[in-house]
Amino acid sequence: MATTKRNQIILPASRGAAGTTVLDRAFARVKGGKIFAKPKRTGSTSVTAASARRPGPRGHKGRGLGEAQLLHPIREMRGTNYQVCGLYPFPMGGGSPLEGVPLGRNLLSGEPVCCDPISWFQKLRVIANPSAFIMANPGLGKSSLLRRMAIGLAAFGVWPMVLGDIKGEHVAMIEALGGAVLPLGRGVGHINPLDDAGAVAAAKLLSAAKAEELLADLHTRRFDLIRSLISILRKKPLDEREDQILDRCLTVLEARHAESGTVPVMADLRQVLKDRPQEVREVALDRGNDARYDEITEPLESSLNSLCGSGAFGQMFARPSTNKIDASRPMVFDLSRISQSESDLRAATLLACWSIGTGTVRTSNMLADDGVIARQRFLLILDELWNTLAAGPGIVDQVNALTRLNREMGVGQIMASHTPSDLMAVRGEEDRAKAKGIMDRCGIKILGGLAKSEMPLLTESVPLSMREQEQLAAWQDPPAWNRRGDEAMEYTNDDVFASTDELTVNDVELRAWLEDPENREWYFDDRTTSPPPGQGKFFIKVGARAGIPFSMEFTPTERRSQVHDTEKKWHEAKFRAAQERGER
């Protein structure tokens, strides 16, 4: 039987007929009510004129007609409206937003990738809170990526605040930004738990209502911090009556120092307890008996003695703060001098740093609310989160509260850790649940190389496709056995970081800088020419969206400043080894 299609009559090939066109039908013959095409001697696979005029998306279909079986992908490029205005209307938009700190290039398209929690929250509105969590195995650039965001945001006017640098990795960055480095440790610096963080002086500049609110917040902050410090000493919380006694002692102490405007120290708080004021006796329930009062307050007085220089914490909290936080520039609390074995002292110092740091932010915000000063944005950095959370009780609650209040406080937040298992290593089931929620609430998750065994726990917080999981696992592999690898590989990012005349590093300056053996060894580090496959490579994940893979690369200015060099103690040993191999 014949088959009809678009004004054509095709006879079966077994009858030797070919396709007929409109012109052929004029010569068609009717035989027995059927239309037959005029036979042609072209075989059974003739091509009509219509099909020859209109090739398909792959060309003319048919044997020997040039159909393309494989279509090569077109290289994607990005340009400004001024550069590519003649291509309008554009066929498609870019793959990643160009808003935020430049981080590197997209591994798929080569386009620039920009990201930071404040820009994506405030301008793009693609995340619910201004926070980011960076996770990758050691040595893959996790802390360097964190510093890149901090440096970029500092250029945007957002001051980074590192409220507890346990390893001292961010000191060089803060110094390069002109910030304040506040060292703390045994015999190096002091931090006063009763420090007002500038609240008392700021209250005099505020309206009556705002001043009362600020001083009430100061009282609460002092009470929470001292109660937490005592809990670390005792390994258990205060009871109900001790909470009330401590609160009344602080109230009496603040009243005594209100007129003079001075900042009390822990010895002043202990003296209030010894003086037996009536306000304290009312909550102590001593029934007017001095002996009973002394018996009730003896445990609390003993704990205050430890904070006044006679206990395990030494002089750390016994004196006025060595340095004050200046809210007008970046800052870091350098805690690298506190030994890892002194977990209680490290936990207590971290709590004090977080309390005073957040108090400074609140004071600055209230002054801005009343129009006294211009609004200042802050970026709170918490690197090596696993070490911080394991420092002791109370730390998890502090970080957990911050992740819930960063929008209210008007601050951005970046945290970093190695693996999801680190968050589960804290003490207590309740703290483990809180630690897991810290990562869940972060608006941006940036993932680097991770072991395959971490994927089940990671996917509970971050939706990942199988392809993304395989890529993360591949990025954690070590480098090739050969030391040098591909000498032709270059790690530059000139298109993203356009250098100005003032910042341009010419060859003469670079050679002069490389005259220093330490600088030369760092600059020509083995990983510069043969890095691990996952070094500097990350996925940006927001919700269930597909991840944005990118590669972060250091600029010449970053290399010269050495802000990302965290292996200075190894330079001498590596230089000697290179000399022995005849490479230096």
From TrEMBL:
* InterPro entries (alphabetical): P-loop_NTPase (IPR027417), T4SS_component (IPR051162)
Please give the residue ranges the record annotates as the region Disordered: 38-65, 556-584
Its name, as the record gives it, is ATP/GTP-binding protein
**Native source organism of the sequence:** Kocuria oceani
